[in-house]
């Protein structure tokens, strides 16, 4: 069966507005990448550090396009039974027992035992066999083995899966496929050639303030500016895990609920809240009250190199969906 005709692709500006309404502040580069992926039916490969918002774009695309989201979390040792399909051995065994007891036709059983009726579809097969297009997230593909990466080549180039007992299962619809990588190992050139690529970085200070104003509007103002500036400086420290945008949003929500209009002068007042930003024992241990105080008392926003102009643009656009060409981050943060 040939793939069904996909729904019309929104123009880039309309797609950007939809992503914004779905809670993702996307710049022109990333919204253009999504538009190209939809237009060409090509997968997207998003690479970058953990926490920059790679995973969130898949969820935002699903909401913006009104499609279901299917997620495959990659890990070492991932195999076809977990990612693509496996046979329902329990049901097959039951059918065999029924046939032996005279409740079925053994001849028919030989023809149907390895049919789609006994096939358990996993995320990759579910995505291409879905009657309507979906969004397929293949998360942290760099954690999977090279053998599994090689299998992806057939699916990503032809959107089909070969099951030895059944033959080739072609796609009923073409999913919007998003692959993410944290760069823990190099991906093959063959996989990269099949994808549209973007490297996602942490947002600039101006962009992150705009994200906070959009997603936590009740905390807009001095608290948002000072808290984001603190997180930006914190990311320059020698941390095991840099806080992502999701951590920034959580921390600002906590500070707002505690009644802070800005960062408190006493760094000890911040200590209990830093659990939202620092996610390893070593990071919490090394960030002493003295270091927190230095980060709080760091350069004012207008003194940070290259920030004053961008921040002015962000203030002008505070109520505008157009976030400009800087880095792209959304509501979910994520890997």
TrEMBL record:
<feature type="domain" description="AAA+ ATPase">
    <location>
        <begin position="40"/>
        <end position="201"/>
    </location>
</feature>
<protein>
    <submittedName>
        <fullName>MoxR family ATPase</fullName>
    </submittedName>
</protein>
<dbReference type="Pfam" id="PF07728">
    <property type="entry name" value="AAA_5"/>
</dbReference>
<dbReference type="InterPro" id="IPR027417">
    <property type="entry name" value="P-loop_NTPase"/>
</dbReference>
<dbReference type="InterPro" id="IPR003593">
    <property type="entry name" value="AAA+_ATPase"/>
</dbReference>
<dbReference type="InterPro" id="IPR050764">
    <property type="entry name" value="CbbQ/NirQ/NorQ/GpvN"/>
</dbReference>
<dbReference type="InterPro" id="IPR011704">
    <property type="entry name" value="ATPase_dyneun-rel_AAA"/>
</dbReference>
